[in-house]
Design brief:
By secondary structure, the protein is an alpha/beta fold. It has one domain (about 1-155): Nucleotidyltransferase, domain 5 (2-Layer Sandwich). Helix content is about 45%, strand content about 25%. A five-stranded mixed sheet has the order 3-2-1-4-5. Helix 2 (about 75-95) links the parallel strand 4 (about 65) and strand 5 (about 100). Helix 1 (about 40-60) runs parallel beside helix 2 (about 75-95), helix 3 (about 105-110) crosses helix 5 (about 140-155) and helix 4 (about 120-130) crosses helix 5.
C-alpha cells in the first residue's frame, strides 16, 4: 500500500510518501510545498493544489492521511490552514484517492506508543522507524511522515478514520 501523509499549512505543507507492506515501511519520498506571502492567497492555494496533484499523479497512492486540524485560539490561522487543507483534500478527491484523518493523539500513539509525546520524541521515532539518516526538516515533513505511519499502523487494526 502506498500512503501519503500530509501536514497542511499555507506557508509550508509537509508530505511523506511511504510504502507499507507486511508491517514494514519503505520511504519513497518526502518534502514540502512552500508558498510565500509574496503570492496572493488564491495563488498560494493554486500552488498547493497543483503541487499535490503532481505528487498524487507520480506516486498513485492508495490512501492520503491528514492530521485533524485543531486550533485553540487563533481563528484566523485556523481559517488559512483550513483553506490549504481544503486544496489538499480536493486534489486527492479529484484523483479518487481514499482520504483519512487522525487526531494528534492517535498520531502520537501510533508513532511513539505514548499519546502525550512531544515533537522531539515523534521526530526521533520517525527517523528510527523509517531508517532515515537524519530527522526530516522542516518539522512539517517529519509530521507528515508520522501521519503516514499512523495510517499504516491503523490500516491493519481497523482503526482507520475515513473522511466522510
Amino acid at each position: 500500500m502506498i500512503i501519503i501523509g500530509i501536514d497542511p499549512g499555507i506557508a509550508i505543507l509537509g508530505y511523506g510518501v511511504l510504502e507499507y507492506v507486511n508491517n514494514k515501511y519503505r520511504t519513497i519520498d518526502y518534502g514540502a510545498v512552500i508558498t510565500t506571502p509574496k503570492n496572493t492567497m488564491p495563488e498560494r492555494i493554486e500552488i498547493i493544489f497543483n503541487s499535490l496533484d503532481d505528487i498524487f499523479s507520480r506516486y498513485k497512492p492508495d490512501a492520503v492521511a491528514f492530521e485533524e486540524l485543531f486550533f485553540n485560539q487563533n481563528a484566523k490561522t485556523a481559517m488559512v490552514v483550513g483553506q490549504a487543507r481544503g486544496a489538499a483534500v480536493l486534489s486527492a478527491q479529484l484523483k479518487k484517492i481514499n482520504i483519512f484523518e487522525y487526531t494528534p493523539l492517535q498520531v502520537k500513539q501510533a508513532v511513539t506508543g505514548y499519546g502525550r509525546a512531544d515533537k522531539k520524541q515523534i521526530q526521533y521515532m520517525v527517523k528510527m522507524l523509517l531508517n532515515l539518516r537524519e530527522i526530516p526538516k522542516p518539522d512539517d515533513v517529519a509530521d507528515a511522515l508520522a501521519i503516514g505511519i499512523c495510517h499504516g499502523n491503523s490500516s491493519h487494526t481497523g482503526d482507520m478514520f475515513k473522511i466522510k
